[in-house]
């Protein structure tokens, strides 16, 4: 049986998908509420509790026009200022509290041989997820409602590791990111299996401020490989740590959302949710 939080997210995701598919008709509150089998009043309240804003405002946050504006506004600040000075405003940059440590060549080559990995299942505003950790940090986080499939996917990443279902402090610290007060987040360490190029791309993603967006081309320029947009896209698509490494903040230069390993509707929901949270913090 799904928890109420999961049920609520599923309803919000269904509403977002309906709005996206019917954007040209500009459906009103009553129409969207009917699609998720709720009264307009209940839907408005549920949506506001989940996203911190109204459905109408949320739609603005997830529109192509808004995305283009963010990309345009950030050309001079995101890549010239924020990356250099670590400015975060009230939202706080990921890189202030998340640090990546790459696995050793032996750990990488041998599929996690001699690694001891704890894993657990948790709830988030965007659905259920699995989170796994070594003594050095979080090594895997993914959205998945099916625990058996989620565990199989984890074991496929580290076929020679030993696994124990256990919640530890490392995992708990990482899950604090879904709480509202980002200024009180504990330090999170990541212990990741990736090539030098992948690690560099993932570290760059950590420097995109909450509530902002970037493009594949801009990330390529940041790592000094302006012609490697395709390779950057592949590295972003192989991100093993959902949400903590914010690959959801990278979109197409046209303003379109683009792909996402854990579903485009979820990516849209996350982008809108973060924008709403930042607006609240800055009021």
Short overview:
By secondary structure, the protein is α/β, with parallel strands linked by helices. It has helices at residues 4-21, 29-35, 40-51, 55-61, 64-73, 78-85, 105-109, 147-157, 169-175, 196-205, 216-222, 229-237, 264-282, and strands spanning 98-102, 116-122, 129-134, 137-143, 162-165, 188-192, 214-215, 250-251. It has 13 helices and eight strands.
Explain what the structure shows.
This protein is α/β, with parallel strands linked by helices. The protein is built from 13 helices and eight strands. The protein has helices at about 5-20, 30-35, 40-50, 55-60, 65-75, 80-85, 105-110, 145-155, 170-175, 195-205, 215-220, 230-235, 265-280; strands spanning about 100, 115-120, 130-135, 135-145, 160-165, 190, 215, 250. A four-stranded mixed beta sheet has the order 4-3-2-5, with helices on both faces. Strand 2 (about 115-120) and strand 3 form a beta hairpin. The protein is globular, with a radius of gyration of 19 Å. It starts with a helix and ends with a helix. Residues about 75-95 have low confidence and may be disordered.
């Amino acid at each position: 049986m799904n928890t109420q939080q999961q049920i609520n997210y599923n309803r919000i995701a269904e509403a977002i998908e309906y709005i996206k598919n019917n954007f040209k008709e500009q459906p009103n509150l009553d129409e969207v509420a009917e699609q998720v089998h709720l009264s307009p009043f209940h839907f408005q309240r549920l949506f506001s509790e989940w996203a911190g804003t109204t459905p109408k405002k949320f739609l603005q946050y997830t529109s192509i026009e808004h995305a283009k504006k963010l990309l345009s506004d950030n050309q001079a600040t995101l890549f010239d200022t924020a990356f250099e000075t670590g400015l975060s405003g009230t939202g706080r940059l990921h890189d202030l509290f998340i640090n990546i440590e790459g696995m050793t060549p032996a750990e990488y080559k041998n599929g996690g041989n001699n690694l001891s990995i704890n894993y657990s299942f948790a709830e988030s505003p965007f659905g259920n997820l699995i989170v796994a950790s070594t003594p050095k940090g979080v090594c895997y986080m993914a959205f998945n409602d099916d625990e058996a499939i989620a565990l199989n996917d984890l074991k496929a990443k580290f076929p020679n590791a030993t696994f124990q279902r256990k919640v530890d402090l490392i995992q708990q610290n990482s899950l604090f990111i879904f709480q509202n007060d980002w200024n009180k987040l504990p330090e999170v360490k990541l212990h990741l299996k990736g090539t030098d190029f992948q690690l560099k791309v993932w570290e760059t993603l950590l420097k995109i401020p909450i509530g902002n967006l970037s493009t594949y081309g801009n990330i390529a320029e940041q790592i000094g490989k302006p012609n490697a947009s395709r390779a950057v896209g592949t590295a972003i698509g192989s991100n093993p740590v959902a949400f903590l490494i914010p690959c959801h903040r990278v979109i197409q230069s046209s303003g379109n959302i683009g792909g996402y390993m854990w579903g485009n509707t979820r990516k849209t929901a996350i982008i809108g949710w973060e924008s709403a949270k930042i607006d609240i913090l800055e009021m």
